[in-house]
Amino acid sequence: LLADFLSGCVDFPPADADVAPLVLYEFGRLMDRFASTELRPDEAENLAADCRSMQELAWHRLHTGHWKDVPVFWRRLYARLAFIVVWLGQQQRQAADSQVGDERLHELLAVCDRGLLLGHPLAQLAGLADRLHARLPAVPACPPCRCCPLAEATRDWPAASAGPARGRTVVRLTRPSLEEFGRLKEPVIVCGVMDHWPAMQRWDWRYLLDRWGHRTVPIEIGSRYTDDDWGQQLMPLSEFFSRFVAPRCAAAADSGPKACERLPCGYLAQHGLLDQLPDLASDTDVPDYCCLGDGEPDVNCWFGPPHTVSPCHQDPKPNLLCQVRGFKAVRLYPAEQSDRLYPVGGGHLLAGTSRIDVERPDLAEFPLFDGADELLALLGPGEALFIPAGWWHHVRSLSCSLSVSFWF
């Protein structure tokens, strides 16, 4: 693992990196010190401190301006420095002939995950995180999910989702050819595209917590990202499950949606979890239909409890939303009817999001919505919803849900 990391740093940073020469010089000095085969404990400690100082510099650059405008150099630098800090942290403890305690292992694992989340999905850093996680004790057993069968029994639209159904049902197709798929102009549910995924047999909360329960993930806190009290927190996957998933599953099964929605909501949403956890990615496969896009698809995971809601919005790319576990209710509206969806104005952070709660529309305030064409999709395990670019869509989970989306 160390040899792979060092060889991967030979050509880093690239010659055309737009970075101050002093930064490049200091990183080169750090790498020379780290590559030394003989590091005394005091030297290792000083090197780790210097790496953390440079990481702080990179952290500030990562949080300056919009994420997409940050030069990729700073993300790659942050991840490489995280590898060095964690590697040295392990070596220092081993050199002292002391057992690395669980608390220290958790700290080192969190450094790995921050490097992967804020920095770059560096393969060697992901491998180091896997090794650390394997040394930690198993997380407590989770109760079986009782809300998925409940959702399956309520596939009639009025019982399955808040608010009345106004539109027609999305058509289902079984493994259409690439040529057929390429001609699609409106949403369809594609069946059979995920049958070969190991995830279809493996993925449940027990599997996820056994393999990755101590890993740090970004969680959206709040019912909707349009709410004033919405925010994000980093926490272990096991904490996310115990704080948000298990209580809402129990409430949904025992008392129904209204009781569930009164509880705090957390959602692992629009996160590149498969980059962070490469072993999890091997349970899935990129659908062939994504080859119709430009380049590699953007792959995100959406893991959460019952009755998470994504407000009505539109995306610039086509989307294939693949449902592995649980059920979702999706309302869709054509891109040509944007005026009827009353979008937030351009230049705003929420541009591309509708101002309407489409489940309970206020037609006095938004009268044009009354004439909007609506399509309804009830999405279950093993089904993939194709959403053409620009189509407005509102998503509500009807049970705890594990989904993977491919924007292509």
UniProtKB/TrEMBL annotation:
Keywords: Iron, Metal-binding, Nucleus, Oxidoreductase
UniProt cross-references to Pfam families, sorted A to Z: Cupin_8
One GO molecular-function entry: histone H3K36 demethylase activity
Cell location: Nucleus
Entry annotated with the keyword Oxidoreductase: yes
A cellular-component GO term for this protein: nucleus
Domain of life of the native organism: Eukaryota
Boundaries of every JmjC domain copy: 266-408
Statement: the UniProt record of this protein carries the keyword Disulfide bond: no
The protein's required cofactors: Fe(2+)
Entries under InterPro entries matching the protein: Cupin_8, JmjC_dom
PANTHER family to which the protein is assigned, alphabetical: BIFUNCTIONAL PEPTIDASE AND ARGINYL-HYDROXYLASE JMJD5 (PTHR12461:SF106), HYPOXIA-INDUCIBLE FACTOR 1 ALPHA INHIBITOR-RELATED (PTHR12461)
Identification of the protein by name: JmjC domain-containing protein
Classification of source organism: Eukaryota, Metazoa, Spiralia, Lophotrochozoa, Platyhelminthes
